[in-house]
Write a structure and sequence with these properties.
The chain has six helices and eleven strands. It has 259 residues and is an alpha/beta fold. The protein has one domain: Vaccinia Virus protein VP39 (Rossmann fold). Helix 3 links the parallel strand 2 and strand 3. The protein is globular and about 50 Å long. It starts with 23 loop residues before the first helix and ends in a 7-residue tail after the last strand.
């Protein structure tokens, strides 16, 4: 792993593919923060097979090029322009590929007729060692999240790991929102769904933590002991040492049972 946080400059996105608050320093730093967590905490090996759902402009993929020397990376993304750019930029990395998935999202892909709650990913069962999503379920409705978790469980190898970010709502979170200590003012829309934009809920979605945990149990994904990490958004003044803005959950697919 590249300790000095260097990145192939061909993988730095041009202006039209930069996302909010972009800087070259943050692009490289955030990518390597995720890589370090994947390697040190999740045990990702250089020969691992990785799927990123919501690959965007390749911020994390760029760091993974320094580690996945024998494995494979697949990134899927609903914004076709990002996929086209990444495919060109990563042409020197034959074990990295990017695919467009045409799935509806009111915030990012309004034209699609394919609803995420019914979507089946084009990958075989038991394919990946690690599947990760950052800032994806924070833009998806509960039924859509349910289906994606089902698909993630299907695609993970036995003992494979999922890493997913959320905005999680629990009693403590609600108290912090009421005390105006959070960076987002989430309010209940219906059921387990909270948002801070009632006109376009998918712009930022939070989910009841108990509901999320029930989905993991439903799809036989086992949350690690100490596998829930609360993010800086909940109370940035008191959580200066927290490295990630959103909440994170690490879970594993059970090992294959011997017959």
């Amino acid at each position: 792993m590249n300790a000095n946080l260097q990145v192939d400059r061909e993988l730095l996105p041009p202006e039209q593919f930069q996302i909010m608050n972009y800087s070259e320093q943050n692009f490289v730093r955030i990518g390597h923060q995720h890589l370090k967590f994947f390697v040190d905490r999740l045990g990702l090996r250089p020969d691992g097979d990785v799927l990123e759902i919501g690959s965007g402009n390749g911020r994390i993929a760029s760091a993974l090029t320094t580690h996945l020397t024998e494995g494979t990376y697949t990134g899927v993304e609903i914004m076709k322009s990002f996929v086209k750019w990444c495919t060109r930029a990563y042409r020197g990395y034959p074990n990295f590929r990017f695919e467009h998935i045409d799935v509806f999202n009111r915030q990012y892909n309004k034209q699609s007729l394919q609803q995420p709650r019914n979507y089946t990913f084009p990958f075989q069962d038991n394919r990946f060692d690690l599947i990760y999503l950052t800032s994806v379920f924070t833009h998806m409705l509960p039924d859509d999240t349910d289906n994606y978790l089902k698909e993630i469980a299907r695609m993970l190898k036995p003992s494979g790991i999922s890493f997913i970010t959320y905005f999680l709502i629990n009693r403590e979170t609600l108290d912090l929102i009421e005390a105006r200590k959070t960076t987002r003012n989430f309010q209940r829309l219906e059921g387990p769904l909270y948002t801070d934009n009632f006109r376009v809920p998918e712009s930022a979605i939070a989910l009841d933590e108990a509901f999320v945990r029930s989905l993991y149990e439903k799809h036989d994904l086992v949350i690690d002991k100490n596998g829930v990490f609360y993010g800086k958004w909940r109370n940035p003044v008191q959580q200066k040492t927290v490295g990630h803005n959103q909440d994170r959950i690490v879970a594993r697919k059970p090992a294959a049972r011997e017959s």
